[in-house]
Structures are given as structure tokens and as C-alpha cells.
Amino acid sequence: MEVIEQTSGRRKISQAELDELLQQLEIWTDNLENCDNPFLFENLCLSYLDVPPGTRFLNAHFVNVDFLHTSLRGCHLSESRWVNCYLPCFHDCKFSRNEFVTCTLKEDATGCEFQRDSFSRSVLRSMRFDSCSFVDINFDDNDFMGVSFRRCSFERIDFRRAGTLDSISFGNARLTHCSLAATDFSRCNGFILDGTDIKDARLPVRSRDPWSQLVRSYTGAHMAFNAMVLGAFFVPLLLKGLGLVVLGRLESRIGNHFMALSQALSEGSGHTLRLPAEICGAPSCKAVPVWQIVLGIDQDRWVTFAGLVLLVYNILRAFLTWRVGPLREDQQMSWKTPRYLPDFPVHHGVWELNFGYLFHWRSFWRSKEDLWNAYAPLWWMHRLILTAFYFAMALFAFHFVQFLQETVLLPA
Question: What's the rounded mean pLDDT across residues 172-181?
Fold first, then answer.
């Protein structure tokens, strides 16, 4: 075991000494199978020093080490232990099976991969993680107040003993197969539930995450409201269509009777009875499908566009009301939210606008059932519905004003 500095205080070392220590560490890791004890850094202060990119820290122990204004870039840290350290700024580093105990990390971390690491009683207050991934991480009684994540991903993380989860911004990160059971997430934001265990969890009031918004909009009292709105839209269309069909058949029968009567008159008296031109209220009649009249396609383009938008809007609303309910019931039975997206590249290409994944289109056919039970497509439909809702409200206001401006004749 290599022991460096055993005094009670922290000794500041020079760049030359650091280079020599890193060279010793490299020699030691090349002969790791012949060594039983870890390489120990103890009671050191590494400030404003340059650690070469690509340095490997394998089975190294850091005790009471301050990395003040020091960056680790492109380094690999595996099976190392950090105790009571002021951690450096990490860039594009890879972590695997490391243990951080009572450490302080206030510098930003970008492009890092954390896998099977452990953070215990550490302070990460007001830190910012950018483009980092966390897989199978153990958080135990840490201070996460004010931490922000941007373009990060979380997979199989247990937040039940994470510690202080206050004012955390997840930056639309997906919590894939994570556990929030009995966790207070009420002051967190920007997360996306993805097969997440939320049993007895406290989520924010009127949480803005996609699944919570879908549940609020298409279940409970909103389900009854949606049913009323859909009935108010589709029932008049059906009645109008049925009325036009009956009227068309009546006109056809009247026309046939006039033709038969005209032939009878012409045989007996030589006179013919012409079909009235005002049967359909126009100088001449033409055959028009009922669906075109119902949607207003036989009128100008504006009426046609408005009718199609309202039809698509209500069809999507009906579909979401039909799909969100069963997914909500599955969550109540398993305490796990539905998956946001299946684990197939083509879906990430479509729903996350990552076009590099679109070349894996064949995986779509192998995951049709998983996609049917995922809610990312439903969330995008909901966003489209919100846009169409404002259009529908503007159209309603326009027609309501026209209705109020209609005039009637009253006795003077």
C-alpha cells in the first residue's frame, strides 16, 4: 500500500509531485492482480493542478483530499473510495462501483457516466449535472437541495433514502424503473415518470410531469366532462346526417312520383308535368354525399378547415379518454406508472426527435404492444389537443358574437 502524507493537516502538493503520484498509480494499476491493498491519497490539497485526460483511478482511496479548482477530464474511476473529500469538476468521466462518503461536490459535472456508484452523507447542494447518466446508483442521506439536471437520464435509481430532495430540477429527465416509494418529491420538478414506483410518494400539487397531466385531464371528473363535450359535438352531426339522408330519400320519392304522374298525363292528354325546380331550393339539383355536407366541404375552404380541425380535435379527445383510463387502472394495481417509451431505438427517434435512431425502423414491428401501453404518443396527442382547444374556443367566440348580432322583428 502506497501511503502519501499522514499528517493531520492537508498538504498542498505541486504539479511535479502530482505527476509522480499519477505515474506511480499507473504502474500500480498495471500490476493490480499482484497487489492486495489500495493506492491511498490522504490529507492532500490539489489546487489549480492539471490531471492528464484519460488518467485511471482503479481501487484508489482518497481520504481528506481537497481538489480545489481542479478538473478531471476523460478519466476512468473504478472501485475507488472517496472519504471526506472536496471533489473536483468532472468532465466526460466514467465512474463504476465507486463510493463517495461525506464528500462535497459544488463544481459542475458534464458528460459523465455513473454506474453502480454509491453516494452517502454527501453534499451536492446547488450542483449542475449536464448530459450525465445514472444507472443503479445508491443514494443514502445526501443533500440535494437546489441540484439541477440537464439532458440527464436515470435508470434503476432508489430515491427512498436519498436524503434532502428540495428544489431539484430534473430538466425533463426520465426516471426509468426508479423507485419513489414513500418519497417526498413535492418540491421537485421537470421529471418524467417512466415505469416508476410511486407507492405512497408525494408528488407536487398539480405536477407538470406528462403522466400526471394526462391523468388529470382524462380521468375522474374530466372524463365525465369529456363525455359531455363529445356528445355535444357528435350527436348534432349524427342527427344532421340522418336528417339529410331522410330528406334525400324523400326528395327521390317525390321526384319518382312526379315522373310517373307526368308520364300518365302525357299518355292521356298529350301534356307533360315538369319536375319542380325548387325541390332542393335551387334552380338545379346535384347529388352530394352526406359526409361532405356534415363537414361543410360543400362550402368555402374556411368552413371546411374549421370542420376538419374540430373533427380531429374531438376524435383525439375521445381516443385519449379511452386509453388513459385503463393505463391509470394498471398503475393503481401495480403502483408503477406506465412506460414513457419502449426500449427500442425507433421510438426514441420519433418521440424525442432524435433522427439518428430512425434507421432502426424494423424494431417498431417487434414492439407494437409495448408502444400501445406507453404514454409518450398520448402525451404528444394531448399537446396537439391543447393547440386545437384554443382554436375551438376562438371559433366558438366568433360564432357566439355573430349569434348575438342577429336581428329579429318585434311589434313596434
Answer: 90
